[in-house]
Design brief:
Layout (H helix, E strand, L loop, with lengths): L1 E3 L48 H9 L4 E6 L5 E8 L2 E8 L5 E5 L5 E7 L4 E7 L13 E5 L6 E4 L8 H5 L5 E10 L6 E10 L3 E8 L5 E4 L9 E6 L5 E7 L5 E6 L8 E7 L5 E6 L5 E6 L5 E7 L4 E7 L8 E4 L6 E6 L5 E4 L2 H13 L4 E7 L3 E7 L6 E6 L4 E7 L12 E7 L5 E7 L9 E5 L15 H8 L3 E5 L9 H5 L8 H15 L3 E11 L1 H12 L6 E5 L18 H10 L7 H6 L13 E6 L7 H13 L4 E6 L9 H18 L4
Parallel strand pairs: 31-32, 31-33, 33-34, 34-35, 35-36
Antiparallel strand pairs: 1-29, 2-3, 3-4, 4-5, 6-7, 7-8, 8-9, 10-11, 11-12, 12-13, 14-15, 15-16, 16-17, 18-19, 19-20, 20-21, 22-23, 23-24, 25-26, 26-27, 27-28, 29-30, 30-32
Helix pairs in contact: 1-4, 1-11
């Protein structure tokens, strides 16, 4: 067991302050107007400590000023998303003239992912924060010229998501989604998309579309592919080479390959949809196929595929601590440049000498940060730099002139010197399993007898990542140590760590959280009498289960959107409306019929009598993933037993706290709740 500080930031270089934007429905008046037009770099006003609640909330939970930054293929323009009154809009900067052109913006949705189709045209999708019109695939696909002209709606944004009552009533309509895959050729205005039809006539197709008139120009031929396709992989020349179809059982998928579009399909593997130990990543410029597969009996690595032996061949990249499955391909040619590894902290391994040299240069200017570079080493490189102290900074590097131009910060009001360290922490669970974790600590306080908020992540089949965490920094600013455990069942740490969490809701998964707290107490870092547990989604469930299972360990608990009745996950919400989801839930959570006693024992709403600590609960009235019933049942059970419970219902939220005003309301309540029931001082 050890604690080690991996990253400590140096002061940032000065940046040009952004102008305050004016809002409008479709036309962006960009806050970028001065950032790139000035040749010099102005010194911004120094950020001040913000001791009062209102200013603290705005500091940590205001919508970031800048989001996506993408260089055009010819390196002459920069696409940037920027906040206008809480919504992300799109602007394009001419890097030669430094003229900023408003391109697109909406007052009821955020522009999210942005990609260049060619040197003149972009494609973007929207995320709509109104739960009546939101979905995981975004809310509409659009294309637009870099001067804001010829805006084309590729698929309708007015696409009402089904509510639970409609689904249970056997709705028979259909919903159409488009997912951008790639430019068709980098020259024309065409793109390749995956078209998904849900409901009546359900199917998935790979098609070429015009972004000028949104018409389908070609549907890729499957040439006798057995079964309906569900996934596709293209090669460097945009030819369909790999397809996925349903396997012999509901949880299995067949992976098919063909040498050319005219060749017959060959079956490479049948993989489990829950835990794909084999996955095709893509094709290089040399026609080699790169796959992710188990390389040491546990962790995922990247291999070149050996077609002669029909199995993964040469190992390209692997790590002893985490899975590796992210290849960096050159945009024009698909040449393999390197890999990104989500280790602690993340790192990039370059196979290309030019990129490696540029990486070293950027790292020397921005030390102790994660510096992500992209672009052309012979022309221009875009830099996205971040750390635990810094939400993000963007810059441009000219390799020929060896000139680095600092552009802007994602959250310019954050002063990194006022943020705190995020430590890499490991501890042993009671059965000996190593649990990775992050520990965010208050500034200027000795690591002794500190108050703690333990914050298990949501999912639960995901993980937390190293970097700037607004929630953790907010709590540390209040004076709390924040523990973020990667309990068993978390992904990214190999199949053993993942599988150890199967059917362990409220059991070993919960013990991992408890053991992290006890480890910090045993080291003297945390005061055993000042511990609170807080989480969202699965993390909210873990918070409630912690109060049930270890009532004397926690002084208070905060449940944000967390389920409280395991059986309801199979009968309420959106998880149980497909065979795939039901199979996954049976494998990962358990069989509700065969494990009825375990489900009852690990459903917090059935054990309100065991809870001793006061509870704060926050739920969205329109949540389809964890319906409001979960919160209301838990709240009512606590009140019936005479327990202290505070309740916040967000009438305009689904499964998240997405609206800026709701973030202020909820985290303001959390600050008051913690000061009342687990004061830091």
């Amino acid at each position: 067991m050890s604690i080690s500080l991996h990253i400590k930031n140096l002061p940032l270089r000065p940046l040009v302050p952004a102008l305050q934007p004016r809002s409008c429905l479709r036309v962006l008046i960009s806050s970028l107007l001065l950032i790139l037009t000035l040749q010099g770099i102005a010194q911004p006003a120094a950020a001040q400590d913000l001791p009062n609640t209102k200013d603290r909330l705005q500091k940590f939970f205001k919508t970031p000023q800048f989001g996506r930054v993408k260089l055009s293929p010819d390196q002459r323009h920069l696409a940037v998303t920027t906040a206008v009154e809480g919504r992300m809009h799109l602007a394009v900067v001419n890097l030669e003239t430094r003229k900023v052109t408003p391109v697109a913006g909406y007052n009821d949705a955020d522009i999210w992912e942005v990609n260049w189709i060619n040197n003149n045209r972009l494609v973007f999708d929207l995320i709509d924060r109104d739960p009546e019109y939101s979905n995981s695939s975004g809310n509409g696909l659009f294309a637009v010229n870099l001067d804001g002209s010829k805006l084309t709606e590729m698929v309708s944004t007015v696409r009402k998501q089904l509510n639970i009552m409609e689904m249970e009533a056997g709705w028979r309509g259909h919903l159409r989604y488009l997912e951008f895959v790639a430019p068709a050729d980098g020259v024309s205005d065409d793109i390749i998309v995956v078209e998904s039809i849900h409901g009546a006539g359900a199917r998935t197709s790979l098609i070429r579309m015009s972004t000028v008139n949104a018409r389908k120009k070609q549907e890729f031929a499957y040439n006798g592919l057995p079964g309906m396709p569900e996934g596709f992989v293209l090669d460097a020349s945009r030819q369909l080479r790999v397809a996925l179809t349903r396997g012999s059982k509901v949880n299995l998928r067949n992976v098919w390959y063909r040498d050319t579009p005219a060749s017959p399909w060959k079956k490479l593997a049948e993989v489990d949809a829950i835990e794909p130990k084999f996955q095709v990543i893509g094709f290089g410029d040399d026609s080699a196929m790169y796959v992710s597969a188990i390389h040491d009996g546990d962790k995922q690595g990247i291999f070149k595929y050996d077609f002669a032996a029909n199995k993964p061949g040469e190992l390209i990249a692997a790590d002893t601590a985490v899975d590796v499955d992210d290849i960096i391909f050159e945009r024009r040619t698909n040449r393999v440049l390197g890999v990104r590894i989500m280790s602690e902290p993340p790192r990039t391994v370059w196979f290309d000498a030019e990129y490696e040299a540029i990486q070293q240069t950027i790292d020397s200017v921005y030390p102790d940060r994660i510096n992500l570079i992209s672009g052309d080493p012979k022309s221009l490189i875009a830099v996205h730099s971040y750390s635990a102290h810094l939400p993000g900074e963007f810059a441009l590097y000219d390799p020929a002139k060896k000139r680095l131009e600092h552009l802007f910060k994602a959250m310019p009001w954050i002063n990194p010197e006022q943020m705190t360290d995020q430590l890499i922490f490991e501890y042993k669970a009671r059965d000996g399993l190593t649990i990775p974790a992050y520990l965010t600590v208050p500034r200027n306080k000795p690591m002794k007898s500190l108050p703690l908020v333990v914050m298990p992540h949501g999912g639960p089949w995901t993980r937390s990542y190293w970097g700037f965490h607004s929630w953790a920094q907010f709590l540390a600013d209040l004076g709390y140590v924040v523990l973020q455990p990667q309990f068993r069942g978390s992904t990214g740490y190999g199949k053993k760590h993942f599988q150890a969490g199967w059917k362990q809701w409220g059991l070993a998964m919960q013990d991992d959280v408890t053991d992290g707290v006890k480890n910090l107490v045993a080291q003297g870092i945390v005061d055993s009498k000042r511990v609170c547990i807080m989480g969202a989604s699965y993390g909210g469930y873990s918070a409630m289960m912690g109060l049930v299972k270890d009532p004397d360990l926690y002084r208070c608990g905060i449940n944000l959107l967390g389920p409280t009745e395991l059986d309801w996950l199979f009968t309420k919400g959106m998880w149980h409306y497909s065979d795939d989801s039901l199979y996954s839930m049976n494998e990962l959570i358990g069989d509700r019929s065969a494990m009825k006693e375990q489900f009852h024992a690990t459903s917090p709403s059935r054990h309100a009598d065991k809870i001793k600590a006061p509870v704060l609960m926050v739920f969205g009235a329109k949540d389809r993933r964890v319906p409001l019933d979960h919160g209301e049942r838990m709240r009512d059970a606590l009140k019936e037993k005479g327990k202290a419970v505070e309740w916040i219902e967000m009438p305009d939220e689904e499964h998240g706290i997405t609206k800026e005003e709701n973030r202020y309301k909820v985290f303001g309540a959390i600050e008051t709740f913690l000061k009342t029931h687990n004061p830091a001082d």
